[in-house]
Amino acid sequence: MCEREHQGYIDAHNHSLNNRLELLSSNVCGCFCCLVIFTPNYITKWLDVEDGYLGPTGRCPNCGQASVIGSASCYPITTEFLTVLERYWFAMAELVPNPDPEESERVDKLRGKLWGIH
Ligand SMILES: [Zn+2]
């Protein structure tokens, strides 16, 4: 059971770095670059201090990006949540206008919340 307060999407991003222990203690992990959800045993490649990271950092088994977050972070590992992270961190909202105005508005609202955090 997760008791930790969610700190928003900026904090969520921190869970994609230096996260080996957290990923390995998660039931499920997701990548917010390619939006694939998988169990941590699929993570076989790690980046580490010699790659310029603070510590062991999981790479997505599908796309290879260091943008993996585990359920032990207390964030919901769902396609919806990963999509919002992806839009935010990979700035897709600016590059590719969302064809669905309703969804676009919903994401904008979430993004607005993000910017309100800092
Ligand atoms: Zn990926």
Summarize the structure.
The protein has 118 residues and is of the alpha+beta class.
General description of the model:
The protein is of the alpha+beta class and 118 residues long. 36% of the residues lie in helices and 10% in strands. The protein contains five helices and five strands, in the order ααβββββααα. It is globular. The structure holds zinc ion.
What would you call the structural class? alpha+beta
How far is the N terminus from the C terminus? 28 Å
Helical residue percent?
Answer: 25-40%
Domains, number = 1
The percent range for strand residues is 5-15%
Distinct compounds present: zinc ion
Report the sheet with the most strands, covering strand number, pairing sense and barrel closure: 3 strands, antiparallel
Number of helices: 5
Tally of strands: 5
* Shape annotation: globular
What is the arithmetic mean of pLDDT?
A: 82
Give start-end ranges of low-pLDDT stretches: 114-118
Radius of gyration: 14 Å
Oligomer: single chain
* H-E order: HHEEEEEHHH
Strand order of the largest sheet: 2-1-5
Essential attributes:
single chain; 118 residues; alpha+beta; three-stranded antiparallel beta sheet; two-stranded antiparallel ribbon; 5 helices; 5 strands; globular; disordered C terminus; binds zinc ion
Draw up the topology in text:
Elements: H1 9-14, H2 20-24, E1 29-31, E2 37-38, E3 46-47, E4 57-58, E5 68-70, H3 79-89, H4 92-95, H5 101-117
Antiparallel strand pairs: 1-2, 1-5, 3-4
Bound molecules: zinc ion.
The site of zinc ion has 8 residues, from loops.
